[in-house]
TrEMBL record:
<feature type="domain" description="N-acetyltransferase">
    <location>
        <begin position="3"/>
        <end position="158"/>
    </location>
</feature>
<dbReference type="InterPro" id="IPR017255">
    <property type="entry name" value="AcTrfase_GNAT_prd"/>
</dbReference>
<dbReference type="GO" id="GO:0016746">
    <property type="term" value="F:acyltransferase activity"/>
</dbReference>
<protein>
    <submittedName>
        <fullName>GNAT family N-acetyltransferase</fullName>
        <ecNumber>2.3.-.-</ecNumber>
    </submittedName>
</protein>
<dbReference type="InterPro" id="IPR000182">
    <property type="entry name" value="GNAT_dom"/>
</dbReference>
<dbReference type="InterPro" id="IPR051016">
    <property type="entry name" value="Diverse_Substrate_AcTransf"/>
</dbReference>
<dbReference type="Pfam" id="PF00583">
    <property type="entry name" value="Acetyltransf_1"/>
</dbReference>
<keyword id="KW-0808">Transferase</keyword>
<dbReference type="InterPro" id="IPR016181">
    <property type="entry name" value="Acyl_CoA_acyltransferase"/>
</dbReference>
<keyword id="KW-0012">Acyltransferase</keyword>
């Protein structure tokens, strides 16, 4: 099986959304995705580009993706955040995730960033072991903190 990695185009956003929904179902949250294909097109290819996406293709179809965007660290400067690295379940264990991961790291190096960061659920032991094996630091002393839209509104209403 030959696999190729390329940058996503606007026309690929349907495939990207399919993979995002596959991930949500895999994480037992099939109804959590409210993002639409149109929103992906606007956010990835509009006037204010919000992300860059790389795709893995095998057997004439999109079988994986890595979506990244810039962040800014007050300690390091420009960084890249890896939001999701997803490989279709039928194609896992074939090295596709590593190809996407390396593409993200090449992109980061080419962009001159000082750090690449991402979040992995503590339940995802396979991913944690994979990242550890590549030399990534797992920072267990930090907690991810979020406000959803409803929480933002409730907080501001106080």
């Amino acid at each position: 099986m030959e696999t190729s990695i390329r940058r996503a185009t606007k026309e690929d956003m349907g495939s990207v959304l399919r993979l995002i929904n596959e991930l949500a179902a895999h994480e037992k949250k099939p109804n959590a995705v409210i993002l639409t294909e149109e929103q992906l097109k606007k956010d990835g290819f509009g006037d204010q580009k919000m992300f860059t996406c790389f795709l893995a293709e095998a057997d004439d179809q999109v079988v994986g993706m890595a979506l990244v965007y810039y962040r800014y660290s007050t300690w390091k400067g420009k960084t890249v955040h890896l939001e999701d690295l997803i490989v279709n379940e039928n194609y896992r264990g074939k090295g596709i995730g590593m190809l996407l991961y390396k593409q993200v790291m090449r992109f980061a190096l080419d962009q001159g960033v000082k750090r690449v960061e991402w979040v992995v659920g503590d339940y995802n032991t396979n991913a944690l072991e994979f990242y550890k094996s590549t030399g990534a630091s797992i920072m267990t002393e930090w907690n991810t903190v979020q406000f959803d839209e409803k929480s933002i509104k409730n907080f501001l209403a106080k």
